[in-house]
Structures are given as C-alpha cells and as structure tokens.
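question for whoever is on the cluster today: can someone run the full assembly for these? two chains, 589 residues total. i dont have access anymore since they changed the login thing
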Amino acid sequence: MNNYFDLKLVELGRWIEAFFAHYPTLKLVVHLLLCTLPLALSFMGAFAFTTWLERKGLARIQNRPGPNRVGLFGLLQPIADGIKMLLKEDIVPERSDKLFHFLAPIMLMIPAMIGVGFLPLGDGLHALPLDSAIIFFFAISSLNTIAVFMAGWSSRNKYSLLGGMRAVAQMISYEIPLVLSAVAVIMMAGSLNAQEVVASQQISSWVGSGNILQEFFGRILGWNVFKPWGFAGFIFFFIAALAEANRSPFDLPEADSEIIAGHLTEYSGFKYAILFMGEYISAFAIAGIGVTLFLGGWNGPVFAGLPWFVLKLFSLFAVMIWIRGTLPRLRVDQLMGYAWKFLFPLAILNIFLAGFYHFLERQWGTAIAMLAGWLFGFGALQLAAIALSRLNQSPTIRSKRVYQLVE
Amino acid sequence: MIVAFYLLALIAVLGAGLAITLRNVVHAVFSVLLFFSALAGLFLLLLAEFIAAVQVLVYIGSVGILMLFAIMLTTNVVGDPNRPVQSRGWVWGGLAVVALLAGVLLPIISRTGGQSPTPLSDFNPSVKQLGLVLMDPYFASLGVIALLLTAGLIGAVVAATGASEADQAKTVPENRPRFPNN
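^ ran it for u. tokens below:
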C-alpha cells in the first residue's frame, strides 16, 4: 500500500495528458500546466490555511479565542481577509520609485514559487526534477533578498530602508549556516538530487525484507534527524531557516515595535497581500527543503508519499508558530554575531563530524558509529559551543564609567 | 529551444545595454541582475545545471547584493542631471569592444564554418561528473585556493576587530580636554 496516493496522482496526470495525445503542442502546454498549477494553487491554499492556523495558535498561546466569527472556528477568516485586502485602496507614496514599488511583490513571489517546485512532494511528484535540485533551491531562495531590498528601497521611507538593510544583512549572513548544514546531508547522500536524498533516508536492507516490523521502522529510523550529525544539522538548519524566512525570533526586518513594519511599511491593499503570501510561501519552501533533507522527505511507515510530506511540513510550520508565540525577538546587534560567530563555526564542525561518522560506519558498522557519533560528536559540539560562547562574551567593563558631560 | 535561446539572448543584451545607459544607479544594478539571470537561463539551455545554479547563487545572490548594499544608502542615486550618461569617448570604447568580440568570435565561427557541431554521444553533464573532472586532476590547486580564501577570511576578521583597548588608550591622551567647546 505504499506510495498509493502518489501513484494514483501520477496516473491521473497521465490520464489527463492522454486526451491530448494527438496534439503535441497542446499536450506540452497541458503537461506544463499539470506540473505548475496544482502546486501553485495548493500552496496558496496552504498559505490561507496557515494564516488561520497562526492566528489561532498565537491566540491560544496568549489565552484568547482568536478568530471565531467567520465560519466554523473562524475557518473562513482567510477568505474574508483576502476580500478585504482586494477592496482596499492601493496607496503608492508620491516620491517612491513607482516601477520597483510595483515589481517588488512579484519579485518575491517568483523565487518562492520556483523554490516550491524543487521540493520532492512524493514518489514521482516533483515539478522540477533537476540533477542538482538542492543547490538550485538555495540559489533561487537567495533571490528573496533582492525582492525585500526592492520593497525597502523603492518606498522612500526611512523605516522601509532600515528594514531592507536589516533584511539584506540578515539573509546573507544566515544563508551560510543554512547551506553548510545542508552540505553534511549532501555529502552523506552523495547526491544533489532531491529524490536521491529522500531515497537515502531509508534503511534499504530493512525496507525490502518483507518483515512487517522492519518495513515499518526502516522507513522511519533512516531519517537523517535520527543520526548524530543529522540531528545537530537539523537544529542549525532550522535556526538559520527561521532567519532566512524572516520568522520570529528573527523577524527584525519587520519588527513592528522598532521600525513599524520594515519593508512592508508603505504597502497596502493587494500588494501587501502578495508580499505577505510570498513570505509565507518562501517559509513553506524552506521548511519543505528541511523536511526533504532531514526529516525523511516523503518517507513514512504506511502510505509513504504526499500525505507524509504534508504532515511533516505542517508540523514544522506549527513549530515555527509555537516559537513565534514563545520567544522574544533578538536584538539587532546580537543577530549578526549569532550567525557568524556561533552558527557558522558549529556548522563547519558538523560537516567534519559527518565525515568522521561516515568512516566509522564503513569501518565498524552502524551500531558503533551511532554510539561514537552521539557520544563523541555531541561532546565535540558541546565543547565547541561552550568555547564559542566564552570567546564571544562581550568585554566586561572593569573601570567605573565616567560621564564627561555631567562632571 | 531556439525560441528560448533568442528570447534569453535578447534579455541579456537588453539588460547589459540598460545597465550602461540608465541614469539611476540602482536601476542600473538591477539591469545587471537581469543580464545575470538571462545568462543563467542560457547556461540552463546548454544543460549546464550546476554552472547555472552557481551563476544565480554567486552573481545574483552575492555580487548583486554586494553592489546593492554599497549604493543602498546613497541619497542621490541619479547623479548630476546636467552631465550626460555617456562619456565623451564612448565611440572608441564601443569600437574596442566590437574589435575584441570579433577577435574572439571570428576564429570560432570560421572553424565551425557556420554549421552546428555534432552532438556528443557520451555527454554526461551531471554534477558528479563535473566534480570528478575538477577534483581529480586539480585537487592540489583547489586546495591552495581554499587555503587562500581561508587566509582572506581570517584577515578580514582581524581587520574588522579594530584596535584593542590598549591601542585606543595610546591614541587618546588621558588629560586632553575632549569637549573644548564646553
């Protein structure tokens, strides 16, 4: 019964395409539409649902009911919000750069949507099955920065510009630990192909064995997050992903208590909705690549495929919402130091630990490698973390501070 | 394929042309980025996936952002409106570029004789193949480059740390009045 949904979906696609078998050009168009349209629509639907989930989740954390007027449990709230956004006036500041102000939301949506295309959603459900899909994903997701800069710069507003500056600095810095923590996975899987990375997260000798218990656990225990380097890598990846997606506690570019809404300040109406959607979909994309790299992709004990991917994606997003409801925002001076002086060295150390684990596994088998990896690997990471936090301590002020103007 | 090539080539030429003719510096940088992305698309058409990804990652994601970061806080991005965008000697520069292009391209065109080359039979453009081709014979030189980059990184950190407290104390004498106007 594994991969049942995926096979049916692929079959459905073939069936639709078969209608146009005699018209090759039309068939190509239909094929392209089948690859893109369901993806775009489902992720927009997921965005609508997530706005509800986020508002509801935050409300429960803050001990209030949240949206509950429109529809059952307020489930129709996203539709009401969408209509409201459509009907609002689109205000463009007089001295703004009109062209860029208009282009910025589109520029944010394009990389977000392309990034989603690189995710292997299931067995055969892969819109852009490139050989180097993972590096392409990181390349495309780095374009977000440009869109945020465009929005911040073109508004001609000091708050917008500050938000844009923060966003550019933050996204460039956190991209490095993000990619470095993914490098460990790419190295161990031996491939940049997303489907092969997913396939490498099964215990292959267990999956084909016919033993029900081994079949069941072979599809779970092989996930990278259950390996020592993968667990550490997942934590680094998740922290960096929160910063890349401008999610709390790294939401400094749009910190509403400091700089109004950063690069979103001068946006209203539908452009604001598109910018908001672009941010959510890029957050989805980055959570999806996290699922692919560390949480086994579409692997799951029963009904492996699309249902598991969706479940994992929403669980990861729920954690993001939980973090938003729990953690306070970082200070702007702590932000860059955290990426460069803490995450970056640890991610590099993790790559070395992954290589170490690889040779241990080849030499002495999985059991010993696991034991040594968890004990030694985590010991090394812990020591490095302690050493780094000692090194990064802000200098203590020994002498009493003298106020020149007062005395 | 041909349509895509001409479309991307048109975008590339347009982007490069706009980059040197636009008065607004930020617009010019974005035209350069347009040119880079068209170039990435052309690499993709040649099945050079990895090069295309690197083109996006390095040139658009890093070099472009660096340029934007440098001019971000410039208040007057348009410059002096009375001065022309082109310099006076632009004709000579254009001629030099044309001569250079012709010098590079003409021998290649004459060698192939205008015909498209025969496709390779054992063409394997995977990243793995690229890695083997690069890492196997040039391992030592790649190692040296990596060492050089690491040295550069450490140098940047040292340069950015700034003067220590002791150095600062040396430069500012203790009993000098710091606010002479007060």
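summary bc i know u wont read the tokens: Chain A touches chain B at residues 97, 100, 130-132, 135-136, 138-140, 142-143, 145-146, 149-150, 153, 161, 164-165, 168-169, 172, 175, 191-192, 395, 404-405 (CB under 8 Å). Residues 138 and 179 of chain A are 7 Å apart (CA to CA).
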